[in-house]
Every structure is written in C-alpha cells, then in structure tokens.
Amino acid sequence: MPRLGLGAWKMKDEDETAHAVRTAVSAGYRSIDTASIYGNEESLGRAILQCGLPRDELFITTKLWNKDHSYSSTFTACEDSLRNFGLDYLDLYLIHWPVAQQYQEIWEAFVQLRKEGKVRAIGVSNFQIHHLTELMSTSSVVPAVNQVEFHPWLTQGPLLAFCNKHRIQVEAWSPLMQGHFREIPELAEIAACYSKSVPQIILRWNLQKEVITIPKSVHTDRIIENANIFDFHLHEEHMRCIDALNQDQRFGDDPDHFQFRD
Ligand code: NDP
User: What is the CATH number of the domain that holds 81?
Assistant: First the structure.
C-alpha cells in the first residue's frame, strides 16, 4: 500500500476532481482515498480512467457507509461502489465507522468480499482499541488497516501502539488538521530548519511514525508540495517535539460519541 495517498473528501466538482487526480498522478501519488458518503466515486472513476495509468498501478480505497450496516446490504453497497467507479475490484474497503452491535456482521461480509476477489484488502476506520478488541475476539481475520484521525494535536499513542502490536496499519485522516496546522508556531520553527513547509513537516512526521497519510487538496501547488516529503529526514528531537504537541483534540467526530446518522 502506498505510504502517501490523495484524500478526496469534499471533492465535489467533476473538473476539480479530474484536475486533482491528474495532478496527483503526475506528482507521483498512486493511492486515492474516498468513501461512498463523499458522493464522488463516479467522478473519481472517470478521472482514474483518464489519468493515463493502468488500473494495477493505482491503489483505490473506499468505505462502507453506516446505513449499509447489515450482512446483505454490505454486498449491495460494495457492488454500488464498484459500479460507480467502473472498476472490477477495490484495493481496500473500510468499515467507515464502528456502528455498535453491527460491525461483526459486516466484517464477515467483508471477509467474504475479499474471498470473492471484489476487494484486495479489508480494514476499518475510526475504530478505538475496544472496537478492535471486540472485532478480533469474533474473527480470526485482523483488519489490514485502521484509518483514524491523526495529526499533531491527536497523536493517538495507545491506539498506535495497539495497532502496531497487532500489525494493523494505521492511516491518518485529516493529517493537515483540516488547515489548523497554521496555529502551531513550533511546527513553523521546525519547518524553517529543513527549508520545508509545515504541511511537509507534518506529512514527513506521519511517514517516520510509519503511519500512512492521505492529505486532501485540489490545488496544483499544494498537491505537489504534499508529495515532496521523501527527500529529507526529521531528526529524533523534532519527532519528539511534534509528538509532544498532542492535546487529544479532534476536528472530526469522536468514534465513541458519534451520532450514526444516515
Ligand atoms: P486534511 O487534513 O488533509 O486537510 C485538507 C485541507 O487542507 C483542505 O482545506 C486543503 O485545501 C488544505 N490543504 C491541503 N494541503 C495544503 C497545503 N500544502 N497548504 C495549505 N493548505 C493545504 O483534511 P481532510 O479532512 O480532507 O483529510 C484528508 C482525507 O482523509 C480526506 O480527504 C478523506 O479522504 C479522509 N478522511 C477520512 C475520514 C474517515 O472518517 N475515515 C474523515 C475525514 C477525512 P485545498 O483543497 O483547498 O487545497
């Protein structure tokens, strides 16, 4: 799985989406993250078809939305996503949120989808340690990935350690704090030491923590900037400094207090 991907939440406009995918592919991105609830699987599918790369060089992730939480509706939802994209398999399919009492059943359907070759890998999103523990107590198939909110104000120490121990790959959503990175002067100071931007420092910190990262942008310069993170290395002291910024602060919903709306 590529360590860097393009996030696609809030990419609505067809031309904007096509431009973002084309730019990302030429900047070296090979992974795209979306979800059925984002409503852009169809436009992404068209953008992927036109981007000039063969299907097997791309890594496509989408997510099962909360209203589709039953064994049978999982199959229908997956078929819908595949049809929307115009693809015959997904690289990664995630349970978007841990809807209480339902995700064990969904997970069985996910295992079956993987057996049938509709999806290459299966994982979860927004799962806390207790959700993972419960899931793993009822299935021998461990999620390949847990995609969670992760950034300098939410460093998820215990969850990261748990996932590392069980070989579950952590993937960071909202890695750039939905733009709030500008509020942290320590990051600007670190960025100046490397002649890099603050987003590049954050994304590099993700990589060095072995967390996959999927920043979203629709702007050419930012898409390119966010990919230029493989030519430098953060010193241990700066890694520790970023780790210490944690405030357990979320910009998105808390998985333990999420209203599982349609
Ligand atoms: P990000 O933390 O990636 O931040 C995106 C925002 O930052 C956008 O407003 C973007 O603006 C701006 N931005 C991006 N790059 C730069 C840059 N270099 N300099 C300045 N501003 C920049 O937020 P997201 O919430 O979009 O998270 C990333 C992805 O994670 C989503 O797109 C989605 O795929 C996934 N996600 C998953 C969730 C889940 O529940 N599993 C929940 C939320 C997100 P612009 O586009 O205008 O450039």
Answer: 3.20.20.100
